[in-house]
UniProtKB/TrEMBL annotation:
The keyword Thylakoid does not apply. Keywords: ATP-binding, Nucleotide-binding, Transport. PROSITE patterns: ABC_TRANSPORTER_1, ABC_TRANSPORTER_2. Signal peptide: none annotated. The lineage of its organism: Bacteria, Bacillati, Actinomycetota, Actinomycetes, Pseudonocardiales. This is NitT/TauT family transport system ATP-binding protein. GO terms for molecular function: ATP binding; ATP hydrolysis activity. It comes from Saccharopolyspora shandongensis. SMART domains: AAA (SM00382). PANTHER family: ALIPHATIC SULFONATES IMPORT ATP-BINDING PROTEIN SSUB, TAURINE IMPORT ATP-BINDING PROTEIN-RELATED. Gene3D superfamilies: P-loop containing nucleotide triphosphate hydrolases.
Length: 259
């Protein structure tokens, strides 16, 4: 079995069946592999199946065709080292921030004194060390999303799946969260799949940008982003950056007929 990849998506398809028997094939023949520690951005038109892809990789739903391997093992083996971050942080309002971070470990029955220390460390890493005992309603949207990221990281995931995590944030907060997530990723070394509607965010963060498009959705482009790390603001204004965004825009347009 191939353990070389953090994730292998092999010929994956997904068809939803509605109650009245209608079939909607959302993804078909998807094939791609993610190396350990890679940051892969995923872009595509609304409705192209990006969220479906992430949910299928996470094991939240099963593929109708093909298979997904995480570190060479089928997802149905109950792989625990995957964590997901959604657009909305969904923190429990009756628990303080550190107890929200610790929630996944409580669900698994693996919470220890050491995990509390680690949760505090994570909050400090995202600049919220002083807010551990506060509640989510006392935080801004960006701060809440940082707590949600800590909650995803507390179980030391090797694979972090992020579905438009910064989509609800204002442009300035989103910018600073991009720096934050780059730093977190470089510190933890986990592999990341990052869905976004922002092509520039996808390019700035990604080692690769995968474009999903068509009906049913398939991979229409997989572009390696050869920009130095760590990336700073200046990279957003480079000629190479602009070439990448133009190329990706053209792939999204080709599939939809928009040019
Ligand atoms: N649970 C479900 N049952 C039936 N159809 C679904 C389900 N989830 C998604 N779909 C359909 O699958 C298609 C793809 O949806 P999905 O949310 O994966 O796209 P997306 O690319 O993430 O969209 P967006 O960018 O707007 O978030 C849509 O037509 C949607 O209506």
């Amino acid at each position: 079995m191939n353990n070389e990849y953090a994730i292998s998506v092999n010929n994956v398809g997904k068809t939803y069946r509605s109650r009245d028997g209608q079939h909607n094939t959302v993804l078909k023949g998807l094939d791609f592999h993610v190396k350990p520690g890679q940051f892969v951005s995923i872009v595509g038109q609304s409705g192209s199946g990006k969220t479906t892809l992430l949910k299928t990789i996470s094991g939240l739903q099963e593929p109708t065709e093909g298979e997904i391997l995480v570190k060479g093992r089928p997802i149905r083996d109950g792989i625990e080292d995957i964590a997901m971050v959604f657009q909305s942080p969904v923190l429990l309002p009756w628990r303080n921030n550190i107890d929200n971070v610790l929630l996944p470990l409580e669900f698994r029955g693996t919470r220890t004194d050491e995990s509390r220390r680690y949760a505090q460390e994570l909050l400090e890493m995202v600049g919220l060390g002083g807010k551990a005992q506060h509640y989510s309603y006392e935080l801004s949207g960006g701060m809440q999303q940082r707590v949600a990221i800590c909650r995803a990281l507390v179980s030391h995931p090797e694979l972090l799946l992020m579905d438009e995590p910064f989509g609800a944030l204002d442009a300035m907060t989103r910018d600073s969260m991009n720096f934050e997530i780059q730093r977190i990723w470089q510190t933890t070394g986990c592999s990341v799949l990052f869905v976004t509607h922002s092509i520039s965010e996808a390019v700035w963060l990604g080692d690769r940008v995968v474009v999903v498009g068509g009906r049913p959705g398939r991979i229409v482009a997989d572009i390696a982003i050869d920009l130095p790390r760590p990336r700073g603001k200046e990279h957003r204004f480079s000629a190479a950056f602009s070439d990448y965004t133009t190329e990706i825009e053209s792939h999204i347009g080709v599939v939809t007929g928009i040019s």
